[in-house]
Design a protein that fits this description.
Elements (H helix, E strand, L loop, with lengths): L17 E4 L8 E5 L5 E8 L3 H7 L6 E7 L5 E8 L5 H14 L6 H19 L9 H20 L3 H7 L10 E3 L2 E8 L6 E4 L11 E12 L6 E2 H12 L2 H13 L12 E11 L21 E4 L10 H5 L3
Parallel strand pairs: 7-9
Antiparallel strand pairs: 1-2, 2-3, 3-5, 4-5, 6-7, 8-12, 9-11, 10-11
């Protein structure tokens, strides 16, 4: 993330706050600020009395103090986010920028407060996850690929709730998806990778289900087109298609477990998914599995040549047939 922050040139005041307006906020007024103790602030200026909504929707966030105070003008309130010591400036800055982007065209204060609490709720889940840091390019591509298969599942195979429950990758299951008597391991290749896939453990191609499948797809960085999507845009699309709040909450919990929250860094690159190939991992499929390794051998990683597993290819309809 950037070394500089909007707070770098804001002096510490002797009273109240020192503030600088956020230029890109075209909806409700938003300000960067510092208080008398030098803490970094983000201040949303709201109109009307939103005390009841604030109390009912309040989301405590470790490392960020959240307070609603009366403003300097009649009928005005300030929602103040204050950085404490428990998270660093980079994460707080990412939270603020994500929030500013979401509020950029919202002019109604009640709606702005609701959107803010939705983001704070997701950040709370993210910060409590196992991987609260920026995803690597490979992890971004891999997550995009898993989400692509997730979307196929709820469009063709399972109910939306069942598809989200079937996504087991964020829970460190052996395969990325498990449902009924089927398990799917997903591999996402860049445009440069064409001849082999890497199997990262001795458990990925061993399953307790009756049918295990390997799904390989090209997740290629592309120029801005109607067909290409960033990770942030793809997550938003999937969320809009789920509609049920409980299912959406489960999606965000799983995204947090893999270390995703909608940071500006995930607005690029943009991807297109092509070349879906499916393979049945039968008994004679070339693989290294835990039950057949010599005693004492563990943490195995190996490559499989795609040309050699062509005899095990199968139609995608077998995998994605509705249950």
């Amino acid at each position: 993330m950037s070394n500089g922050t909007p707070w770098d040139n804001i002096p510490t005041p002797k009273s109240d706050f020192t503030v600088v307006r956020v230029n890109e906020a075209k909806g409700i007024p938003i300000y960067w600020g510092r208080d008398t103790e030098g803490h970094c602030l983000l201040i949303l200026v709201l109109t009307g009395d939103l005390t009841t909504e604030y109390r009912s929707g309040f989301v405590p966030l470790n490392g960020v103090d959240i307070d609603l105070r009366n403003g300097s003008m009649a009928g005005e309130q300030r929602l103040i986010l204050t950085l404490a010591r428990h998270i660093d400036h980079d994460l707080f800055l990412s939270l603020c920028r994500t929030l500013i982007d979401s509020l950029s065209v919202i002019n109604e204060s009640g709606a702005a407060l609701a959107v803010t609490f939705t983001h704070l709720k997701r950040w709370k889940v993210f910060l409590s996850g196992r991987n609260a840091k920026l995803l690597s390019p490979e992890q971004v591509r891999g997550l995009f690929g898993e989400l692509s298969v997730l979307r196929i599942l709820f469009q063709n195979t399972l109910s939306k709730a069942a598809a989200i429950s079937a996504w087991c990758g964020p829970e460190f299951a052996h395969q990325d998806f498990i449902f009924g008597d089927r398990a799917i391991e997903v591999k996402s290749l860049s445009g440069k990778e064409r001849s082999a896939v890497i199997i990262s453990s001795e458990d990925q191609l061993e399953s307790i289900t009756s049918n295990l499948f390997l799904v390989i797809q090209q997740v290629v960085e592309t120029q801005t087109t109607e067909q290409s999507l960033s990770l942030n845009t793809f997550v938003s699309l999937i969320e809009s298609e789920l509609t049920d709040n409980h299912v959406i909450d489960e999606l965000w919990h799983k995204l947090a477990n893999v270390g995703y929250t909608p940071l500006p860094e995930y607005d690029n690159p943009r991807f297109t998914v092509t070349g879906l190939r499916c393979y049945r991992v039968s008994t004679d499929f070339p693989k290294l599995i835990r039950s057949e390794l010599p005693h004492g051998i563990t943490k195995v990683s190996y490559s499989i040549n795609l040309e050699n597993i062509e005899p095990f290819s199968c139609p995608s309809e077998i995998i994605f047939a509705r249950t």
